[in-house]
Amino acid sequence: MNVLWILLGIVIIVVVVMLNTVVVMWCERKWMAHLQSRLGPMRTGFHGALQPFADALKLLGKEDLTPDGADKLLFLIAPLIAFVPSLLIYAATPWVASFTGVSFDTGIFMVFAVAALFPVGILLGGWASHNKYSMLGGFRAAAQQISYEIPIILAAMGVVMLAGSMKLQTIVDSQAGIWNVLTQPFAFIVFFICVFAELNRIPFDLPEGESELVAGFNTEYSSMRFALFFVAEYANLLTWSLLTVLLFFGGWGGPLLPGWIWLTLKTYAIVFVVIWVRATLPRVRIDQLMAFGWKVLLPAAMVNVLITSVGIITDFYALVIAEFVAAAAFIWIVSRLGERSGDKARAAAVAAHAEEAEA
After folding, report:
1. Using the 8-state DSSP alphabet, how is residue 295 labeled?
2. How many other CB atoms are found less than 10 A from the CB of residue 194?
3. Is the separation of the CB atoms in 297 and 193 below 8 Å?
4. Among the residues of 36-131, which ranges form H helices?
5. Measured at the alpha carbon of residue 301, what is the angle toward residues 122 and 175, in degrees to the nearest 5?
6. Widest Cα–Cα separation across the chain
7. pLDDT in tens, 122-164
8. pTM of the model as a whole
């Protein structure tokens, strides 16, 4: 009987995650379209609601090709290695108070450990494709995710320290009075920036840089193997949005409405912000990406741990004030970096233009 319940739980997780992935795909198309004064898909179903299913049928009908010279075994299993962790994470993630996954005492690190497998699939896919663009995309993904996993875990440590537990349900329960986004705003900013890098989303979508890498690690993939990468990306978008809500926005807590409705509304609000950023910002360069991770986000996350530890020992209100001051200083520093990041390139372009004019 226990085995049947476990199998039923697995089926429920897969169905819910896949349905939500379909919804997120449609939402991204429509929200980005409206943010950019377009309509988006309109012909397939009401307001294009059936477009994700049409895409699935199209991918099922495509020929499944393996490039000459590719490592066939790794080429086959790489999409699975990328896709399976996007489902496994939910086994340790509490959805609502009355329905949770496996209750680990170290649940948050279980989530991070499983999420760390996603870039392994991308790296294997790029390496096995026997394509230089794919290989560069795979290496970029591995370097990017390794660089940003350290500050994102350190940012989450501030929340863990306040809750006194690494159990996700305990972290949610500890926010019954006040959300962590108000007590840990500095940690939230660092964490949320790292989420974009973990998702390979603009402005950090370097592994798929179409302008220089064609499509990056998935250049050689077609049919359902490409679909697995595609679905894994959108499932991870939902996963990281859910984790952000659990850590910083009180999880399923909220007045009047049932917990699962609050959790859904908050999660899709984060999804909307991620899509909003994609519709707004340009892509950064790979050197800017790496430098920002190691030289800015990592020290910032360590400073947040220091501020949190001192605040816990001394005074809670002093901690909150210090967090807001640190967050304001961080925003100012990052805005100055963005303002000056293109100064040398612009100066070089002006000098080159002047030389051409004199010639």
Report:
1. I
2. 27
3. yes
4. 51-61, 72-88, 107-115, 118-128
5. 95
6. 84
7. 888 887 887 878 888 778 888 888 888 889 999 998 888 888 8
8. 0.84
Q: Which parts of 104-184 fold into alpha helices (H)?
A: 107-115, 118-128, 132-163, 168-173, 180-183
Q: What is the DSSP string of 309-346?
A: HHHHHS-HHHHHHHHHHHHHHHHHHHHHHHHHTTHHHH
pLDDT band at 4 (very low <50, low <70, confident <90, very high): confident
The region that residue 94 occupies, defined by phi over 0 for left and psi between -120 and 50 for alpha, beta otherwise, is: beta
| 8 A C-beta contact, residue 121 and residue 86 | no
Contact 105, 166 (CB under 8 A): yes
Dihedral sign, Cα of residue 200, residue 206, residue 207, residue 209: positive
- Predicted pLDDT of residue 342: 58
Q: What is the mean pLDDT of residues 289-312?
A: 89
How is residue 160 written in tokens? 């863990």
d(CA 280, CA 36): 9
Distance of alpha carbon 128 from alpha carbon 122, whole angstroms: 10
Amino acid at 341: S
Q: Which of 224, 206, 225 is nearest to 216 (CA)?
A: 206
